[in-house]
From TrEMBL, chain A:
Chain ranges of the MacB-like periplasmic core domain: 22-228
Top-rank taxon: Bacteria
Protein name: ABC transporter permease
A single GO molecular function term of this UniProt record: transmembrane transporter activity
Subcellular location(s) of the protein: Cell membrane
Domain ABC3 transporter permease C-terminal intervals: 286-408
UniProtKB/TrEMBL annotation, chain B:
Phylogenetic placement of the source organism: Bacteria, Pseudomonadati, Acidobacteriota, Holophagae, Acanthopleuribacterales
Family indicated by similarity: Belongs to the ABC transporter superfamily. Macrolide exporter (TC 3.A.1.122) family.
GO molecular function, one term: transmembrane transporter activity
Name of the protein this chain belongs to: ABC transporter ATP-binding protein
Coiled-coil intervals, chain numbering: none
Pfam family, one: ABC_tran
Gene Ontology CC: one annotated term: membrane protein complex
SUPFAM superfamilies on file: P-loop containing nucleoside triphosphate hydrolases (SSF52540)
Key words, A-Z: ATP-binding, Nucleotide-binding, Transport
Ranges that cross the membrane: none
């Protein structure tokens, strides 16, 4: 049937008879698909934007910063500072199940003058544990990251970002060289890069114990961070609660005191965003499919009108021997042709528009961070195509059956 | 060719049953040229539709070319209509968006005859009905008589055994009617069985046998001495 030229000629003849009507119907289908593609791509763009926001830090991590208690507890007043120490780090590391890589941070405030011979500049410094590497997704380029011996022996070693290398070392290999940070000599043991951007790539890491000793920190820490492997949201919440309880117990404040520490559970936030985008994606499909259904109903309506107008013709065809299957096929093929053709136009226009937007985003100096790489994936396009063919069948089914049911006697009665 | 035995047909209209054919017996042999006459509403068209397998009947039997035509599936009915029968209607029923040639060729399309063969045969038939030079004309470019000749060519193209015509001259003036009737006689002379429903005496006179219907029964069945069949 599909390969029968006569059928195509018949369809072409009827389409030509009703140009405007056909054009309007096809437009509504094409528009539906076009919008579906655009919406899907936009949803994808937003989702990629959020993923980009989370790209720097491990998404399976919890970050804790001590603050000041907000509630009185066990006879103690509100307003006490919570001072976290290396002991807290060790307790969390050793007693909380599910904690994977862990590090504390001792902050060295401001930028430090860092010198290599005659080259010098100011860079930020972080003193951390070896586990820090996993929390900032630090990628080693050369040498190694900090290790436990660096910590235990308070070694004066530094792991420097590739931007630091660019500024201080020009052509020479920095590994094994000595740099001067605020008057103290550190040996460079590693070079890293970081997808988090220029700021992260200008960082210098030193052992936390070295940092604490050099800058009078005793065993104070400013932040505690750890990853949780592939823990799901529920498990991350359990680990979070255990840590909260442990710290509250150790520092004597209410575990429900929201001000005592600031805890940021990336899993939770990440999951929330992902759920949000799953919701948006679902919404987009519903809206898009709704639009397409409107198109289908339009085509179905047009076909019904067409059947009505062609009653005499159908009656005549049946009188001269057209079997019902042939009549059904004629109308099904017509509606499928209209929907598939129109849908294809919408599909191409939609993908073209998305490509154009992508191109424009690509040429922008600093593209918006919340909207990145919108695109239509193969599955969505294939899904849309499948929907189209089905739509064509559905749209044609009722009119085709009505056509096949036409009684030639009634259709051809001379009055 | 056509054998009808005690056919009854009634229309159900709500709770009312209107009996239109009340036991018709009729035999038409191969090669006859028959007219069916009768007052309006006497059941002529109903009978012709049954002969044409467009309509069902409740009682009796109808054999066409030796085959019983009763309770056929739509597909079977379509097959017999296509292969055994040719229809001619009062208002021609040509498809407006097809030219004369395409209209004539249409029945062969449903026999899956190739396009070239179809068109060749259609052209032959248009020549035969005297419209060889009108093959590419659209129906709205043809006169009533020409349209009916195109319709007759269409009825003939599948080489059917029987041609059924319901008031084929009803929309034509008397001169054109004569021409169309001459064409039917020619068709009949070539061996086809022809059945024409009419209420015009001049038309009936041109057939070799006239069946008069009245109130759903055959009232009269006369052979016209002057007309050879
Ligand atoms: N589909 C139908 N439903 C109900 N009554 C019908 C139908 N078709 C025909 N009739 C009735 O059957 C009778 C015979 O109709 P018809 O065969 O068309 O007569 P004729 O062709 O002799 O004028 C008429 O009374 C007509 O009203
Ligand atoms: Mg009638």
């Amino acid at each position: 049937m599909i390969f029968n030229l006569d059928h195509w000629l018949e369809i072409w003849q009827t389409v030509r008879k009703n140009k405007l009507r056909t054009a309007l119907t096809m437009f509504s289908i094409a528009w539906g698909i076009f919008m579906l593609i655009l919406l899907l791509a936009a949803g994808r763009g937003l989702e990629n934007g959020v993923r980009y926001q989370f790209r720097d830090d491990a998404a399976n991590s919890i970050w804790i910063t001590p603050r000041i208690t907000g509630e009185p507890f066990r006879g103690l007043k509100a307003g006490r500072s919570v001072n976290l120490t290396i002991e807290d780090y060790e307790m969390v590391r050793d007693t909380i199940p599910g904690v994977e890589h862990i590090t504390a941070r001792f902050n060295l405030r401001g930028n430090f003058l860092v010198r290599n011979g005659l080259q010098f500049s100011r860079f930020p410094i972080r003193s951390v544990h070896p586990g820090h590497k996993y929390l900032e997704k630090t990628e080693m380029r050369r040498g190694r990251f900090l290790n436990e011996r660096d910590i235990d022996e308070r070694r004066k070693v530094a792991v420097i970002g590739n931007r630091v290398v660019d500024t201080l070392f020009k052509q020479t290999d920095p590994i094994g060289q000595w740099i001067d940070i605020n008057g103290i000599q550190y040996k460079v043991v590693g070079v890293f890069t970081d997808v988090g951007g220029v700021g992260e790539q200008r960082m210098i890491y030193i052992p936390i114990t070295t940092g604490q000793a050099a800058y009078g920190g005793a065993n104070r820490i400013h932040r505690l961070m750890f990853t949780m492997g592939d823990a799901d949201l529920e498990e991350s919440k359990r680990i979070e609660q255990n840590v909260r309880n442990l710290l509250a117990e150790r520092h004597v404040y209410s575990p429900d005191d929201p001000r005592a520490i600031r805890l940021f559970n990336h899993v939770e936030n990440y999951q929330r965003f992902l759920q949000l985008f799953q919701g948006i994606a679902l919404f987009i499909w519903i809206v898009g499919i709704g639009t397409i259904i409107a198109g289908i109903v339009g085509v179905g309506n047009i076909m019904l009108i067409s059947v009505k107008e062609r009653t005499k013709e159908i009656g005549l065809r049946k009188a001269i021997g057209a079997p019902p299957s042939d009549i059904i096929g004629l109308f099904l093929l017509e509606s499928m042709t209209l929907t598939v053709l129109a849908g294809y136009i919408g599909l191409v226009a939609g993908i073209g528009t998305v490509e154009l937007v992508q191109h424009v985003l690509g040429t922008m100096g600093n593209p918006p961070e919340f909207f990145r790489d919108p695109h239509v994936d193969v599955h969505a396009a294939a899904g849309a195509a499948l929907i189209l063919v089905l739509a064509g069948v559905v749209a044609g089914l009722i009119p085709a059956r009505r056509a096949a049911a036409i009684d030639p006697i009634v259709a051809l009665r001379d009055e | 060719m056509i054998h009808i035995n005690q056919i009854r047909k009634s229309y159900q209209m709500g709770s009312l049953s209107l009996e239109v054919l009340k036991g018709i017996d009729l035999n038409i042999e191969e090669g006859e040229l028959v007219s069916i006459m009768g007052p309006s509403g006497s059941g002529k068209s109903t009978l012709l539709n049954i002969l044409g397998i467009l309509d069902q009947y409740q009682e009796g039997e109808y054999h066409l070319a030796g085959t019983l035509m009763k309770s056929l599936s739509e597909r079977k009915a379509a097959y017999y209509r296509n292969h055994y029968l040719g229809f001619v209607f009062q208002s021609f029923h040509l498809l407006e968006f097809k030219n004369a040639l395409e209209n004539v060729a249409l029945p062969l399309y449903y026999q899956k005859v190739s396009r070239r063969k179809r068109n060749r045969k259609a052209r032959e038939l248009l020549e035969r009905v005297g419209l060889g030079d009108r093959a590419e004309h659209m129906p709205n470019e043809l006169s009533g008589g020409q349209k009916q000749r195109v319709a007759i060519a269409r009825a003939l193209i599948s080489d059917p055994k029987v041609i059924l015509a319901d008031e084929p001259t009803g929309a034509l003036d008397s001169q054109t009617s004569d021409q169309v009737m001459d064409l039917f006689k020619e068709v009949n002379a070539s061996g086809k069985t022809v059945v024409i429903v009419t209420h015009e005496a001049e038309v009936a006179e041109k057939t070799s046998r006239t069946i008069h219907l009245r109130d759903g029964v055959v009232q009269n069945d006369t052979h016209n001495a002057g007309v050879a069949s």
